[in-house]
Design brief:
alpha/beta, Endonuclease III, domain 1, Rossmann fold, 6-stranded mixed sheet, 7% strand
């Protein structure tokens, strides 16, 4: 049975939590600048428009100047936004109409605004909402796609989708909702490959749950499994309090905070914090995990920097402490540590219910450990060989999956002779942090002819907290398949 449209109040609350700072992405100082920027944004990114308008507004600061500028010069000023000849003609005609009909002022009336050359209803809605505070809900390509995937509308045109949304949501929410749905479409609900596993709205999305074909493509989306605790249940509400500017220096923690709807609070990340994918374009990178750019981190004046004892360095933690920056240093050596860290992290970032819900989800997957499983060597590097031995998170994952982790230390470097001495029955080759391939598997199969050698998803295996459940599922599936 197909899932019904999401409950409006729940959807509003989750959008507000996920995108609390959503606003108009077009830079402007007055209604005139917003009209011009909105016209230029057709078939162009807002970022490109924002790079173009400063020079344009210096040359044409008001409708009179825009109406008088030479058409060829205007085309040159806006060339980078695409379709510049048609846009230039529309902008000049719009400026002349403002001068002739409205005394050089942008009207705040829908009919008058939409009647301007090159404007129309969509642009008029954007200007009314963002320049005059008049409730309006313009439907662009992102909102059109998101609304239909969520089942909020089945209409086939932006105008009809707008009418459906305006019936569902109160006018007081239209302006904010417009920006939140756009951000969701840009960051998560992408046209070609939506990030359904990390979507804060997936619990209510019939398309993301695979209950019906995607109205955008006509196909059932191959969205992958829902990461337990992320969106299987309606996400837990966020606290109104908590740090506003957070810099996690751990990739998996960055991903987890985004799942909890805290992406708008992220003020920085490391180069390796690359999930969800859109975060690369919206959150600035500040060095690596072992060598973060401390001056840049300090310049952001973060309320909280999150580290992990093995992944980051003591020197980094000490430097942040000396600068008076609040830090949270996690220690993840076992699944028990994960349960504790989820609660501590949730409390620290103002999402206590989300942290406890995720911990409960993970705890439900744990079961008594069976002794006597196959001797399992988990390699994490080559040249030199390195493995994850007893006392590590990876070893505890292996143990919790019914296997026996081996290794002469936590993260020892091994010579060829020391590697051979391990005599494993199962060798795991994750794709991170070292990218093991089929060539490495073939080499190790020759070294250990009696062992099973398996390539595994390294991100699932090594990204604790955000993907621990995936790691358990992957390793338990391998155990069931072993001869």
């Amino acid at each position: 049975m197909a899932k019904k449209a999401p409950p409006i109040q729940s959807l509003e609350a989750r959008l507000a939590a996920a995108y609390p700072d959503a606003r108009c992405a077009l830079d402007h100082l007055d209604p005139f600048q917003l009209v011009v920027a909105t016209v230029l944004s057709a078939q162009c990114t807002d970022a490109r428009v924002n790079l173009t308008t400063p020079a344009l507004f210096r040359r044409c600061p008001d409708p009179a100047a825009l109406a008088a500028v030479d058409l060829e010069e205007l085309e040159g000023l806006i060339r980078s936004t695409g379709f510049f000849r048609n846009k230039a003609r529309n902008l000049k005609a719009m400026a002349m109409a403002l001068e002739a009909r409205h005394g050089g002022l942008v009207p705040s009336d829908m009919a008058a605004l939409a009647a301007l050359p090159g404007v129309g209803q969509k642009t008029a809605n954007v200007v009314l909402a963002n320049a005059f505070g008049v409730p309006a809900l313009a439907v662009d390509t992102h909102i059109f796609r998101v609304a239909r995937r969520l089942g909020l509308s089945k209409a086939g045109t932006p105008e009809k989708v707008e009418a459906d949304l305006c019936r569902l949501f109160p006018p007081a929410r239209w302006i904010e909702l417009h920006h939140q749905l756009i951000l969701h479409g840009r960051r998560v609900c992408l046209a070609r490959k939506p990030d359904c596993p990390g979507c804060p709205l997936r619990a209510w999305c019939p398309t993301g749950l695979g209950e019906r074909a995607d109205p955008h493509s006509g196909k059932v989306l191959e969205t992958g499994p829902v990461r337990p605790g992320a969106t299987v249940q309606p996400p837990a509400p966020l606290s109104a309090s908590g740090p506003v500017r957070i810099i996690p220096l751990v990739p998996s923690v960055t991903e987890l905070l985004a799942e909890w709807g805290l992406a708008s609070r992220l003020a920085g990340r490391t180069h390796f914090c690359v999930e969800p994918p859109w975060i690369r374009a919206t959150v600035p990178a500040m060095g690596g995990t072992k060598n973060p750019d401390l001056p840049r981190i300090l310049s952001q004046r973060p309320d909280l920097v999150i580290l992990e004892r093995d992944e980051n360095t003591l020197a980094t933690a000490q430097a942040l402490a000396e600068a008076g920056i609040p830090t949270l240093v996690l220690t993840i050596n076992s699944l028990k540590d994960c349960l504790k860290a989820l609660v501590v992290l949730g409390d620290a970032v103002g999402a206590p219910e989300a942290g406890r819900a995720r911990a409960a989800s993970l705890k439900a997957l744990l079961r008594p450990i069976r002794r006597g499983g196959r001797r399992t060597l988990t390699l994490i590097w080559k040249d030199p060989w390195m493995c994850a031995g007893p006392g590590t998170y990876l070893a505890d994952l292996v143990r919790a999956s019914g296997l026996a982790p081996i290794g002469p230390g936590r993260y020892p470097a091994l010579t060829d002779l020391e590697l051979a001495a391990q005599d494993p029955q199962l060798v795991l080759l994750p794709s991170e942090p070292y990218r093991f391939t089929r060539r490495h598997r073939a080499d190790l199969e020759k070294r250990f002819p009696r062992a099973q050698v398996r390539l595994v998803d390294g991100r699932a295996l090594t990204w604790y907290l955000s993907r621990t459940e995936q790691a358990l599922a992957q390793l338990r599936a391998i155990v069931e398949e072993l001869p």
